[in-house]
Each structure stands twice: as structure tokens, then as C-alpha cells.
Specification:
Layout lengths: L21 E7 L5 H4 L1 E6 L10 E10 L2 H7 L13 E2 L3 E9 L10 E5 L11 E5 L3 E3 L6 H5 L2 H17 L8 E3 L6 H12 L4 E6 L7 H5 L6 E4 L5 H5 L4 E6 L11 E9 L9 H6 L6 H20 L3 E4 L6 H12 L7 E6 L3 H12 L7 E5 L1
Parallel strand pairs: 9-10, 9-12, 10-11, 12-13, 13-14, 15-16
Antiparallel strand pairs: 1-2, 1-4, 3-5, 3-7, 3-16, 5-6, 6-8
Length: 375
């Protein structure tokens, strides 16, 4: 008899006496630097018979690396993370549906991309189980590598820009925006959205060697002004109070607060020097005591107060998987407003290359765009 937790659509028969089927995955059994803790090993493959009604089993074809992944492997928020070891790395993925729960409404063979919530993370593997609400059909015209590179950075940009649009007087359209690091995973998507969706005047800051790369990577005319932060001081180069929206991806809020106009907005996604407020931690599925929530809320209040004293609205963002935002991202991709930027790739079975790519991003030396692992 089917139960609510295990009912699935046309499950393949499984032999209960057979040995567990294994899959390959990039795991860590303790926190630490990627080069010290990550390893490729065999782990049990998720069973279709164990799917909840709203879950989907996906055969992963590609997974993309994010700063969040390597920081969590190094212990970020580990004190609040209840997921047992060994943990599998990764949130972003693209692949093919293998089986679906009764309420998932997805057919086997459907090509999808998705963003695994923290409770279901583990996309650097041959298979992953995620809620159906975290999936959308793979955008037309994209291969699996390109699709896998989009979910977390894309959803982050969608949510950050929607928040800025709601906080800025008159909205975000046509305003001046500063996005540091236009060649990175988040930055490369953010500048495209700023220009093609919100018609903003777009400014970015990059290293000397990257200045000439910006038009080729994100498209000609996308960025209106590129500042070489190794040669020029942003405050001197841009002037005081000239930026309507600072999308802080690197932790520059308090050193560059004077750049933001009166009634301007800062949306910060950097984990330092800020801590996610309690509501953001709950969205991440992190379970901690009330005193921790109180402490981080006090810190968030202090950050917002400091910005308010300077006439600026400050907001911390911790993006969460939202199907509606994934659909918005797909729409923009299929309309030609956003294109993925894949910088480098490695096969999952090439353990050394994958771990080196993870360590490189952890050290702050990530390549242009996203590092994608093919499975």
C-alpha cells in the first residue's frame, strides 16, 4: 500500500534483497579547505522508491560551483548545519528526470535545471533528489553545462534586483548601478540584467588585466563604464553620491558607502563583514537557538542603522530556491537578455582537476564566469 511519503509515478521495480546501488560523488567528511577535505568516492545512490510525493530524482549531467559551496565546505554556518557527514558538494545542476513523486508532475526524460535547497544539496554527484519546486525545464538553446551555470547566480540576481526595484524611489529602471566583478559568476549575470532588463547605466570594477575582457565576456555595450580598481580609487573616479544601487557581491559596503546617493540602495550578498539576519537563516533551513537569531538580527539592525544614518537603504540577501524566479530567469534567457558565462570545465571523474577548481575559487582566483563539472 502506498504511503504519502513514498508514492511515486511508475516506479521501476527494485529488488529489496539486492545490494545498494552506488554512485560517484564529490564529498567531504569534515570541514576545511577544499584541497584538504574534498574527495571523489562511491556513495549510495538515491532510490526512486524513497521519493516523497513532491520530490524528483534527477540524473545529473552538469553541476556548477559557487562561492557558497566552497565556503560551506570550509565551515561557513557549520554550527547551524544539521546535515550529517559525509556531505556532497553543490547546489546548481542540470540533468534529466529519472523518476518523480506523484505530485511532481514531471515525466521521466524531461531535461531540467535546478537549484537544490540546503536540505537537499549534493549536486556534484551522478544523481540528486530535489523538490519539484526547485526545478524548471532547461532553457531552449542551452546545453547542460550552460544551464547548470545559471540557477544560483541567476536567482540571486533576480531577487536582488527585485528588492532594489522595490526600495528605490521610482524603481530601478534607468538608474545608475555599480556591480563589482563583472567577469565573475554573479557579476556577469547582474550586468546583463541591469542593462537588458532594467535599462540601467552600468558601472563595474575589475583588475587591470580584466579591463579589456569585459565587452567580450558580457557583451558589447552592456557595461557603460569599467573602473580599474588596481589603478584607480572608486571614490575619486566615480565621485561621491553618484550610485543609485550598489549590488555588493564582495563585501565593500562600508568602505564605499559614500558612493551611494541619498535614498540609494545597497543589497549585499557577501558573507563578510555581515551575518544573515534571522529571517534569511530560516529561509536557508538553518536551525539554531533563539539567542542566535536575536544576535544576528541585532547585527543586521546595526548595519541597516549605519546605512540609514548616511541616507542609504541597506538590505542583506540570502537567495533561496524559488521556482517563479527560476522561470523569470528562463524567460530572460530565451528572450536573449541573459546568456550564461562558462569559464572552465572538468569531468567529475577527474578528481584532481575538480578539487583544484574548487580550491582556486576558494582562494579568490576563480576564472571568468562559472566553473562547471560535467557528469
Amino acid at each position: 500500500m502506498e504511503t504519502e511519503e513514498t508514492a511515486i509515478v511508475n516506479p521501476a521495480p527494485e529488488d529489496p534483497t539486492a545490494a545498494p546501488v552506488e554512485m560517484r560523488a564529490l564529498t567531504y567528511s569534515r570541514v576545511g579547505k577544499p584541497s584538504e577535505v574534498l574527495k571523489l568516492e562511491a556513495v549510495p545512490k538515491p532510490e526512486s522508491s524513497a521519493l516523497a510525493k513532491d520530490e524528483v530524482l534527477v540524473r545529473v549531467k552538469a553541476a556548477a560551483l559557487n562561492q557558497l559551496d566552497v565556503k560551506m565546505a570550509n565551515g561557513l554556518l557549520d554550527w547551524a548545519d544539521k546535515k550529517p557527514f559525509p556531505r556532497i558538494l553543490g547546489h546548481d545542476f542540470a540533468g534529466i528526470v529519472e523518476a518523480a513523486g506523484e505530485n511532481a508532475k514531471l515525466e521521466a526524460g524531461t531535461e531540467v535545471m535546478g537549484l537544490a535547497p540546503h536540505s537537499h544539496r549534493g549536486t556534484f554527484a551522478e544523481f540528486v533528489v530535489v523538490p519539484a519546486s526547485c526545478l524548471v525545464p532547461k532553457p531552449k538553446g542551452l546545453n547542460f553545462n550552460e544551464a547548470a551555470s545559471l540557477p544560483l547566480v541567476g536567482v540571486t540576481v533576480v531577487q536582488a534586483f527585485q528588492r532594489a526595484d522595490s526600495l528605490l524611489p521610482g524603481g530601478l529602471h534607468g538608474k545608475t548601478i555599480l556591480v563589482p566583478g563583472a567577469l565573475g559568476g554573479v557579476g556577469s549575470i547582474a550586468v546583463q540584467v541591469a542593462k537588458h532588463v532594467y535599462s540601467c547605466h552600468v558601472i563595474t570594477s575589475v583588475a587591470t588585466s580584466d579591463v579589456v575582457k569585459v565587452p567580450d565576456v558580457v557583451g558589447k555595450g552592456v557595461v557603460d563604464r569599467v573602473v580599474d580598481y588596481q589603478k584607480d580609487t572608486l571614490g575619486i573616479k566615480l565621485g561621491i553620491r553618484k550610485i543609485d544601487f550598489l549590488f555588493d557581491t564582495v563585501g565593500m559596503t562600508w568602505t564605499h558607502l559614500s558612493l551611494v546617493s541619498k535614498q540609494g540602495v545597497i543589497v549585499c550578498i557577501s558573507t563578510s563583514p555581515n551575518s544573515p539576519p534571522a529571517k534569511e537563516m530560516r529561509k536557508m533551513g538553518l536551525s539554531v537557538g533563539w539567542y542566535v537569531y536575536m544576535a544576528v538580527d541585532m547585527l543586521d539592525f546595526w548595519n541597516r542603522f549605519k546605512a540609514w544614518m548616511n541616507g542609504v537603504k541597506y538590505s542583506y540577501l540570502c537567495s533561496t530556491p524559488e521556482q517563479k524566479d527560476l522561470k523569470t530567469l528562463v524567460k530572460w534567457v530565451e528572450e536573449g537578455k541573459v546568456r550564461p558565462v562558462v569559464g572552465s570545465t572538468a569531468a567529475l571523474m577527474e578528481e584532481k582537476a575538480v578539487v583544484e577548481g574548487c580550491q582556486k575559487l576558494f582562494d579568490g582566483h576563480g576564472s571568468v564566469g562559472k566553473f562547471v563539472v560535467t557528469v
